[in-house]
Specification:
This protein has one domain: Aminopeptidase (3-Layer(aba) Sandwich). Helix 4 links the parallel strand 4 and strand 5. The chain has a 7-stranded mixed β-sheet, with helices on both faces. The radius of gyration is 15 Å and the shape is globular. It contains 5 helices and 7 strands, in the order E-H-H-H-E-E-E-H-E-H-E-E. With 161 residues, it is α+β, with helices and mostly antiparallel strands. Helix 1 runs antiparallel to helix 2. This is Ribosomal protein S18 acetylase RimI-like enzyme. It holds the Pfam family Acetyltransf_10.
Length: 161
């Protein structure tokens, strides 16, 4: 059983590995593995994660069963969008997907931003499983997102209660 808790600096190497493994499992069929390595090296490095961990008005969570970190989520209040929390990352190791870890991480994140009226995210436009997950959790498409590394994204938003 996995429990959601706040990430610590000691978790960062395991989170970096989780992000790389999950990214390759999700995107290698769509993009070449070298591109995914390049993205992971920049966005999923321990140094990048450490900067997120230290971020203000942010939450960095992990799903931990005492042996393995099976998932992670990171969100922060937007610096430009009024009363909007931005979900930057929500990843679950492939071996643990479809077991409620993503749901539990997301449910915890929703409670972490009491002054946010909505949550926004961008998801890779060909990641049908992620889009379906977010739609099942109340997100609706809001148009095109910003391309990252030549990868097109869809912006999605949800009103928070």
């Amino acid at each position: 059983m996995f429990f959601v808790r706040t990430a610590t600096e000691r978790d960062l190497p395991a989170i970096s590995k989780l992000l790389s493994e999950t990214s390759h499992a999700t995107y290698d069929a769509l993009y070449d593995a070298e591109k995914i390595d390049e993205i992971s090296t920049k966005w999923h490095s321990v140094a990048a994660l450490k900067a997120n961990l230290a971020g203000k008005n942010a939450e960095f969570l992990v799903a931990d069963n005492g042996k393995t970190i099976g998932g992670m989520a990171y969100a922060a209040m937007s610096e430009t969008l009024h009363e909007t929390a931005v979900l930057h990352q929500l990843y679950v190791l492939p071996a643990f997907q479809r077991q409620g870890i993503g749901r539990d991480l997301f449910a915890e994140l929703e409670t972490c931003f009491p002054y946010a009226g909505r949550m926004r995210l961008e998801v890779e436009e060909n990641n049908a499983k992620a889009i379906a997950f977010y739609e099942a959790h109340g997100f609706a498409p809001e148009g095109s997102g910003s391309p990252h590394w030549g990868i097109e994204t869809i912006a999605m938003e949800k009103t928070l209660d």
